[in-house]
Amino acid sequence: MGLLHGRLRPAEKEETIGLFQRGGLHILVATTVIEVGVDIPNATVMVIEQAERFGLAQLHQLRGRVGRGAHQSYCILSTGKLTETGQDRIRAMVESNDGFYLAEMDLKLRGPGEFFGTKQSGLPALRIANIVRDRELLELARSEAMALVESPPSSEELRRCVQFIREHWQRRYGLIEVG
Questions:
Q1: Could you tell me the pTM of the whole model?
Q2: How many Å separate Cα 120 from the centre of its chain?
Q3: Residues 103 and 64 in one domain
């Protein structure tokens, strides 16, 4: 049995992984340090404890560490008490192996977090749109903004637009003037 975690020196990690690859270890207890970049085809069983604490993308990455060889493999998700969102997350893992689908479900269930902050889940403080619900609208707004940059309006058109925004949206959304 071996132990692999992030506080090991790189040489110790390599030695432990090498032993496991060559069959010198039959069980490897590891933290999520094995999430990416570990390719051990003979690994056939993975147990993820407290699976409800991970996002779908991370669970999918962890699950991908087994089943790389010719033998049947299993990923066992061990959970504590599940919230409704936790149940949805585990259900999605059981029902799909599609990484794109799971990433989209992860975004819907956890939210994207902050783009310019430290919060890794939840909805960002967008005042006008919801990044998950209004995805198509936000994509349209982006393409319209790009078209505006490529073909800028005349000074008079721009002045009228700024005036309209000041009169109709400034107070409601707290828009500020950028000069």
A1: 0.61
A2: 9
A3: yes
Instruction: Report the distance separating Cα 159 and Cα 7, nearest Å.
Output: 59
Domain contains 33: yes
> Which helix (DSSP H) or strand (DSSP E) does residue 178 occupy?
none
Would you call 68 exposed, middle or buried from its count of C-beta atoms within 10 A (0-12, 13-18, 19+)? middle
Length of the chain: 179
123: left (phi over 0), alpha (psi -120 to 50) or beta: beta
Q: Which domain holds residue 103?
A: 2-110
> Would residue 124 count as lying in a domain?
no
Within this chain, do residues 12 and 90 fall inside the same structural domain, yes or no?
A: yes
Q: How many other C-beta atoms can be found within 10 angstroms of the C-beta atom of residue 18? A: 12
pLDDT of 36 > 60? The answer is yes
Based on the fold, state whether residues 160 and 77 are members of the same structural domain.
Answer: no
Q: What is the pLDDT of residues 106-155, one digit of tens each?
A: 888 877 665 555 555 555 555 566 677 788 888 898 898 899 889 988 99
User: Which residues does 54 contact at the CB level (< 8 Å), separation at least 6?
Assistant: 32, 48, 62
